[in-house]
Hints:
Layout: E1 2-6, H1 9-26, E2 31-34, H2 38-54, E3 62-65, E4 67-69, H3 80-87, E5 99-100, H4 109-122, E6 128-131, E7 153-156, H5 159-165, E8 178-181, H6 184-188, E9 192-197, H7 203-211, E10 229-234, H8 244-253, H9 258-261, H10 271-280
Parallel strand pairs: 1-10, 2-3, 2-6, 3-5, 6-9, 9-10
Antiparallel strand pairs: 4-8, 7-8
Helix pairs in contact: 1-2, 2-10
Amino acid sequence: MEVVIRPNADAATDLVARVIARELRDNPCLVMGLATGRTMESVYARLVQMHREEGLDFSAGRTFNLDEYVGLSSNHANSYRHYMNHHLFLQVNIDLQNTHLPDGMAADLVAECANYERLIAGNGGIDLQLLGIGQNGHLGFNEPLSALRSRTRVKILSPVTRAQNVPLFPRPELVPHRAITMGVGSILDCRCCILLATGEEKAAIVAKAVEGPITSMISATALQLHPECTLILDEAAGSQLKESDYYHWVFENQPEWEPFRAVSSPIAKSGFQAKRQLEKQPVEAMSDVLE
Ligand code: GLP
């Protein structure tokens, strides 16, 4: 595991987007594992900006999202399919046929989960998995006690997770109780993982995930088992880490980070600036795209 702490959320977001862009340029057929949540909105805004201004090409890319709520259709405003279409897929030149999320409306959820695993394997596995972290340390919706070898399955959302998502729903009682999520084991199979966390409210759980013992109570601690995992944080999210001087030293001296040490060119906007700018533009017509 490697930890990179950037001075602020803009710089952390920008770094994540630049790493994804580099991987996509190196391998246009990249299989991307994608995440949702507020933290990711700025990453997607920055990728959309790179597509528009630098021609970042998604046309051959393939995506698999971590999770989807059970009971929400793909065109429901709170579904993760809707989130992904809105924030990324309909704003870049990706082929929607190559974008995948579990179907939370499937009649047979067990079969849907097995099928999702088969689909990922059939695409050669996930090359680059983008991750956020929940307040309780979950990855995707791998709530406390998720087995470290778990695969895609239905999980019941914990009260902490439902409370965290209340602001995104019109009313608290509308937050679903269940979701399909890739398992901790499915995530550990990805070739490379990047977790982005920003803000003071993530500091305590990030410290546990990075420097605490591995436990199924906090699924993010399982990333300590992954051979190629990088956590990218802002100062606030990294503020409770004990070894931050060491992490800073590694980033400043490791040759592989050389192309990323310099800040983006002054004309390149940060993820947050890009997000604000996109929000000012009229929302593109959203078609009700089904899987
Ligand atoms: C949801 C998603 C997680 C994500 C988390 C973080 O719970 N299922 O994959 O990591 O939100 O959300 P935020 O970025 O809003 O803190």
